[in-house]
Design a protein that fits this description.
Blueprint (H helix, E strand, L loop, with lengths): L2 E3 L10 E5 L2 E5 L1 H4 L6 H5 L6 E3 L5 E3 L6 H10 L11 H11 L2 H20 L1 E21 L2 E18 L2 H10 E5 L2 E3 L3 E2 L2 E9 L8 H6 L4 E4 L8 E2 L3 H14 L3 E6 L10 E6 L1
Parallel strand pairs: 2-5
Antiparallel strand pairs: 1-4, 2-3, 4-5, 6-7, 6-15, 7-11, 8-9, 8-12, 10-11, 12-13, 14-15
Helix pairs in contact: 4-5
Length: about 280
């Protein structure tokens, strides 16, 4: 049984007991009227009618669980939500009902900060492999003198994935292929903007530049932003070293290394995380 009270005759005494949606809270009148222009301020200054339950508690037909956070804010002017809090929309709706302006502003700031943090959180992985290929070619010593030569080229492939497209775009700006026509930036996989595939081949000293270019091989260089000086990526080890520098500069930390975490520069697979 709920009893309606005439606001002109309602007398408030500390402590005040409130039944919010079945949850009983006990507080003080000064806490409830901290923001006098709020709905609670009007209720407990006698400006709005109130109901009482059978035990004499003032009754408010709203969500009782999240009222805990509203009451704590009234007590301390601080929004202290648990890390795993998952009812932000409900809390915003309840704060709007009670018309607590400062709380609504802080909830908006909290949500904005959460979205920024969520946008910054990312996972970055890099896998690198090498394939050796032996080439046989004729080297012209004179108009009628050709010698047969052989050399081994190392073809390196790195597959990079990041949940943040901005990081992939940064890697595309940092690395460059060196071609006869000049530097060419790599591109993310078509239709998959979170994936970047790099493939490069250092030129063996015994292989003529013309033959190297004719085979379609490309060297890879890196110029970490904001540096303008490029450095040749010689092998898988140097690639891993540069990936470490770039990832750490972007706020990532190493999460896993394969196959040997104690020999990170000679790994074939790296995983970074950023919170």
């Amino acid at each position: 049984m709920l009893n309606s009270n005439n606001p002109d005759k309602t007398e408030f005494q500390d402590p005040v007991s409130i039944n919010v949606g079945g949850q009983i809270y006990t507080t003080t009148l000064s806490t409830l009227t901290r923001f006098q222009d709020s709905m609670l301020g009007a209720m407990f200054r006698g400006k709005l009618p109130l109901l009482k339950d059978r035990k004499g508690n003032f009754f408010i037909d709203r969500d009782g669980k999240v009222f805990r956070h509203i009451l704590n804010y009234l007590r301390s002017s601080s929004l202290d939500l648990p890390r795993d809090f998952s009812e932000m929309q409900l809390l915003k709706r309840e704060a709007d009902f009670y018309q607590i302006g400062p709380l609504l502003e802080e909830l908006a700031q909290h949500e904005s900060g959460f979205l920024q943090a969520a946008g910054r959180s990312a996972v970055l992985t890099a896998d690198v492999s090498c394939q050796a290929r032996t080439l046989h070619f004729n080297l012209k010593r004179s108009p009628e003198n050709f010698e047969l030569f052989s050399c081994t080229v190392q073809i390196y492939t790195a597959n990079v994935f990041c949940t943040s497209r901005a990081v992939v775009e940064l890697l595309c700006r940092s690395f460059s292929y060196q071609t006869p026509e000049g530097a060419v930036p790599p591109q993310a996989e078509e239709g998959q903007p979170n994936y970047l595939r790099l493939q490069w081949t250092p030129r063996p000293a015994e292989m003529p530049v013309e033959l190297f270019n004719k085979q379609g091989y490309r060297r890879l260089t890196v110029a970490p932003v904001p540096s303008t000086e490029s450095t040749v990526v010689q092998d898988a080890r140097s690639f891993v070293e540069w990936m470490l520098q770039l990832a750490l500069a972007e706020g990532f930390r190493v999460d896993s290394v394969f196959p040997d975490s104690s020999d990170i520069l000679n790994c074939v697979s790296l995983r970074f995380v950023r919170y």
